[in-house]
Amino acid sequence: MVTIDVKAVLIALLLLAAIVLVVFLSIMIVNLTTTLKKVNTILDDTKTVTSIVDEKAKETKPVIDDVSSALVGFASGLKGNETSIASLSNLAKSLSSMVSIIRNNK
Among 71, 81, 88, 94, who pairs with 66 as Cys (CB 3.0-4.6 Å)? Predict the structure, then answer.
């Protein structure tokens, strides 16, 4: 007659489950490492793009301020507070400086 020890079977099943769990965790760690490397490259690219955008924003802010003040001057010239020739002159100067910055960036 064949006798099976229940305790020995349970220990064998627990060891088998532990081996499967270790294999599963090692595969998961390898996949996690690959994912983290990809995330690091994406973050580096984002850092580069953010620095470029920050630089261009700082560069174009004075030009935008000049164009804004020229448009305000033009509007006040239309209302009669400033001569229209002076306001058109300011607007033309601001637009030409904006065009020169755009050309220099290309």
Answer: 94
